[in-house]
Amino acid sequence: MNHIELIKTAELNNVELIVKLAIASMIAMQIFQWDDIYPNRQVLEDDLKNGWMYGYYSDSELCGIITLNNRQSPEYSDIVWKYKDENPLVIHRMCVAPNHQVKGIAKTLIAFAEDFALKNHHKTIRLDAFVNNPIATGIYRKLGYIERGIVKFRKGDFYCFEKMPG
Question: DSSP assignment, residue 146?
């Protein structure tokens, strides 16, 4: 049975493995978005300890992750957002294990985030996606996320996307 739930801190090794496999897969596709510096074990552990990371499970197997909170990167202040929102839901570090990709899991995780935003009274959802990751940017565009600008992080340029849930 497939379901999404908060990931327990005891699953840190499983989370880290999915991220490492995703990094290797992205590198093989010439997408140099993540590496051993980010997202590192400490970042993932903080997501778990703060109760921000949710997992997509097929039976008991963790297949994908998404971090949801209201923490915007300081760089987001340079973006002209369409919607004024002091408390947007922000999506971070979404990834699907390579052996579970192209099964609709990313779309399901994003739908979960949109439902989460509605239930928790967030007027908008914001996120960033690496400009050189056509898979991620394509998914967000297909699901109605609108590009509002570009920010620069250590690995390069990232599109900032925004959407009203619902």
Answer: E
Can you tell me the distance from the alpha carbon of 154 to that of 100, in angstroms, rounded to the nearest whole number? 28
> Cβ distance 130 to 98 under 8 Å?
no
Predicted TM-score (pTM) of this structure? 0.96
- Write phi, then psi, for 149 (nearest 5 degrees): 155, -175
Write down the architecture of domain 2-163 according to CATH.
3-Layer(aba) Sandwich (3.40)
Peptide bond into 39 cis (omega under 30): yes
Which tokens is 53 given? 């990371």
Q: Give the start-end residues of each E strand in the chain.
A: 2-6, 53-58, 61-69, 89-96, 125-130, 146-153, 156-163
- Which tens digits make up the pLDDT trace of 142-154? 999 999 999 999 9
Rounded distance, CA 49 to CA 28, Å? 31
Residue-wise pLDDT tens digits, 50-78: 999 999 999 999 999 999 999 999 999 99
